[in-house]
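Hey team,

Filing this mostly as a record. A colleague (T.K.) asked me to run one chain through the structure pipeline before their review meeting, and I want the input and output archived in the tracker in case anyone asks later how it was produced. No errors, nothing strange. Just documentation.

Input sequence:
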Amino acid sequence: MNQVWEFGSISTTKYRREALFLSVIVPIYNEEESIPILCEKLFGVLDRMGKTFEIICINDGSSDASLTALRKVAAQRKELKVVSFRRNFGQTAAMMAGIDHAEGEIIVSIDADLQNDPEDIPTLLSKMEEGFDVVSGWRKDRQDAPVRRNFVSRVANKVISRISGVRLHDYGCTLKAYRHDVVKDVRLYGEMHRFIPIYASWMGARVCELPVRHHARKFGRSKYGLERIAKVILDLVVVKFLDRYLAKPIYVFGGFGLLSLILSIVSGLLMIWLKLFDGISMIQTPLPLFSAMTFLVSVQCVLMGLVAEIVVRTYFEARDRRVYSVRETINFGER
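Output structure:
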């Protein structure tokens, strides 16, 4: 039962929880110096907006005083919520935890290192009012190392855009805005947090990109190195595979199987041709071994495809999942 208390001209409702408009997710790893400044800027921007909000800070196993700094702010502002990991699991896991705990209709992610600017959040939200489901930030004037970070990032972004078919200039920018219903069922692993716009686009979401400000790092150092490129590429292969072949893995395994079978048949016929018309003994060439190996590979690939089909069906049926995603329904009330 809702109970209303009145104090002069102010009325509040007890036991009724107002729906949150915005959830801001902040992955944090060893950013104790940045946290007070970031929180001050975030609260300044969000308070001016006049919307209900929460800030969810994910302490990703920080070894410095980041958690202590978060506790101090959380004691003063109840809108700040903290999820602290037992150890460092990585930014993707932090993003996943933030999405799982978020209650807002809109989710915004932002870095804790002060390189993203909280003043850009209202701009992202204004863009979403045009009907977009995902608005991705683009660090057009990026303040990072020109070769080790900027050049490598540009090359990686072009490769990702080409393979995924989703044209964005800056997948690595954490500052993004999502509608909750678009990302609520997304499960992230590895370094896949940067691929959320790709997941969303493949599921029919409207995605756009918006230039945002970018500042040079003030405290600490970057947590990422060049080794991340290999991880991103491998994760992209997984994402592409899941998009095309999750529901029908027999297509990819069976395709390799058929290719191997064709190679086996061709090498076998060539072996017979050389024996009959050129008098070359079969054992003088590697063709017998090659033909046998490719035949075995073809059989194994087809069998693996059949096993994968069984696993996929078990996955969908056990979790009551569907191979489609519905945006909305009309006139489907209770019967």
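Quick notes for T.K.: The chain is about 45% helix and 15% strand. Residues 287-318 form the longest helix (32 residues).
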